[in-house]
Amino acid sequence: MNGALAVSRYTLLELSRRRILLVFFIIGALGIVALGVGLKVLYQVASSNPNNFGGASNVDAATFNRFLELLFVSYLFQALSVFALLIAFGIGMTAIYHDLESGAAVSIFSKPVSRFAFTIGKLAAAVAGLLVIAGVLAVEARLIMFLFGGGLESALTGELLAVVANAIVVMLIVLSLSTWMNNILAAIVAFIYYNVVTGVISTIHMLADGGVIGNNVVKNVFDVLYWLVPHQLVSSAIRDLAQAEIQLSGGAENNQALASIPSPSGAGDIAWWVFTVFVFAGLVYYAVRRRQV
Amino acid sequence: MATVVSVQSLRKRYRRRDPWAVDGVTFELEGGQAFGLLGPNGAGKSTVVKMIAGLLRPDSGSISLFGSDPGNPAARAELGFAPEDPDFPKFLRAPEVLDYFASLLGLDDDERKRRIPETLAFAGLESERRQVRQFSKGMKQRLGIAQAILGRPKLLILDEPTADLDPIGRRDVRALIERLKESGVAILLNSHLLSEVERVCDNVAILARGRVLKEGTMADVVPEGSNLEDVFVQLIEPNQPERDHLPSFISERP
User: Fold this and answer.
1) ipTM
2) Tag placement on chain B: N or C end, fewer CB within 10 Å?
């Protein structure tokens, strides 16, 4: 266990010194601040002119503030998702690959540490690194949300969990591929697999489930394929946000638009996520164990 | 002295179509003994030591390291390995690399505090503050030797340990080998510097194309009035492919 802790500790130290992660983090942090403060400034400018609200306009200041908050949270979710993915790729491409390719693994594996402990240490560091960076971005986002009065904090928490869970799967795919091939190629293959192949399969499966595709053969094929790929976890946040936007615009609660938003992941999807994580973590270990340095 | 490492009929090739990188190598090494593994480039020396260090799996044959399989982490607890062209996590500094490896060796805090500064001083890296990625090849080689001796090994494998070192560094490594030998540590030395091997090794094996051509004590291998270099050249040249020594354009006048 000491071996895994040492690997984990020094991998985290290395990750903290990698400029690419720092750059992603800084861009993410500045982007969230700029987005929140920019929208707030927009509100201040708009509310400073009494002609903008009331009178001819049917939008009051509170509604406009709420609209901006929803806009901010909507962009925020997208930003968190993009930056969590970038960071997952950044960590996945470097955490194990550089040790194996540089020859550092020769010195490490000649020490009394098992490949299992090495893998556990690397995976723990990679997940911890991702959690810390995503967590700090989320705390920053939460603080910015105070500017708007709040009310969507639980949505942020749910979305953050889903985003991090999905990023962990991507990171594990990149990690396992980068032990077999060049890390850039690993990132490209992982992107195609996770974002394109899995995305297409999930979408067609959803359409078939919703009765849009009537062909039973296609439906059955995609039922099988759906359970061969990772499932992206979906929080209730997107639906909550859409519902809030509809309410704000005075639309009906059971608006048709809501039906096109994927429903939050259930226990089956979460169990599949856990299974997927174990499978890809197992693949990382298998690759590290097989690797001759 | 007890047998530290025993290698029996070792064979290894990297791919099925490749020729054997190591083909039937057998030798034993006891505590306090220095064993030199010699051979031209591609002879299989590094492959042999990597198999002993548990980094590569042999295709056939057996290796016993302190009585266990080298794949077993516990068997490597008393092994120090300084690889050829060593490298380390590149964003760490020298003391951090040694602390990392000390943790892998299971050294407690007190031992780490004592050993790391002394080992850094031995390697001439005590005042080095840069990260490994900014190190020269020579500095990496010195750090490679430092991490290999950190755990006070009973078997020290040095794979081309002085290739990138300056004369002072070479002298220090020679002194280190002699001191460790006196204290009962077994040394396995891979080197092209035959004078160095002749000076510090008790036993040698000369390899070519993965096979042992000659093995024995230094006195057995090097007859009276000869030297190791002569023996090496006589043994190796007939096993090397014929080639013109210089490209023709070298002797052309501009």
Assistant:
1) 0.91
2) C
